[in-house]
Amino acid sequence: MANVTIWDGTATFNPGSSTPFGFYDTDTQFQTDAIKVAKFCGTRLGYPLMDVELQDQSMFACFEEAVTTYGNEVFNFKIRENYLNLEGSNTGSSMNNQLTDPTLNRIVQIAKHYGTEAEVGGNITKHSGSIDVTAGIQTYDLDTWAEDQGITGSIEVRKVFYQAPPAIQRYFDPYAGTGTGVQSLMSAFDFGAFSPGINFMLMPLSYDVALLQGIEFNDQIRKSHYSFELVNNKLKVFPVPGNSGKLFFEYYKLSDKNAINYNNSTNLITNVGEVPYSNPKYSHINSVGRQWIFRYTLALAKELLAYIRGKYQSVPVPGSEASLNQADLLADARAEKTELMTSLREMLDQTSRGKQLEAQAKEAEDVQNTLKSVPMTIFVG
After folding, report:
1. Res 319: pLDDT
2. What residues contact residue 215 under an 8 Å CB cut-off, 6+ apart?
């Protein structure tokens, strides 16, 4: 194997060739920090007291990966936080450094499906139809009716207009005086010679309600009440129809309810992979984020050095051999990466919209409790 120069304590950054992808090579702050980070990692790995089997470009690659990882975690959090608002929007412009204003558009769209079932709106067209009721026939097949109407996929009946005639139709006109027991009063006041329509003797509203209720109870108890039974789109009406006529109902087409609504428009966000976030701009990352990146770069460099030293468990030296610390490096690197990732995700979770609202509510409650402990002053005039 050819001799490869290991790190000598110096670093030179060349934009366009020093990192594998060059995501941030044109950012002057990235160029400056790349050199500082390489020296930082080298020092933390033992240089100059011991050799560090890496080159400056190895550390630059770790630095680029750390910045990209930080950006991915931040933007993944933003996607999770706002995806309900983002889905269906345009993919045309980058969302980096853009504030996402939450809306109810997607929630309203989802709620429309519930509205369909609850009969309070919805996004499925409700149709009306009617069947011919024949005297003496109780059962009617609505699937057969749907086939006759050219409807494929059957129907879902939501309302059947089969009810007893309103009780008010059998209620004598109170203003005519008939049946209300006030006819004698009309004569007493010399109103008998006039048209009944001018009788303004007002009865209590409770009287009208009680009379209508009596008519309805009479029909329910003493007669076969108007009702129907709908099983598997087989409609059975009670009582047996005595006359022929029309029976109306409302229904949904199952083909409409089962259809999945597609939006075939182009350039729309349809999954998390299409949300237009790009790699972060390094110069926009604050000192807190950069400190995380520096530490994650060190963990990556330590992991890379462990893999390199793992090729040789020991190195011969004059009169003996030296054991390498590959296992310790690898264990430390993995633990540090896990710890850094956990702390970043916990911090992002604490900044979520829900957590912030909970914190504000708790703060308001604590303020109120504190104010309750403030003694009330006594005014002496």
Report:
1. 63
2. 167, 170, 171
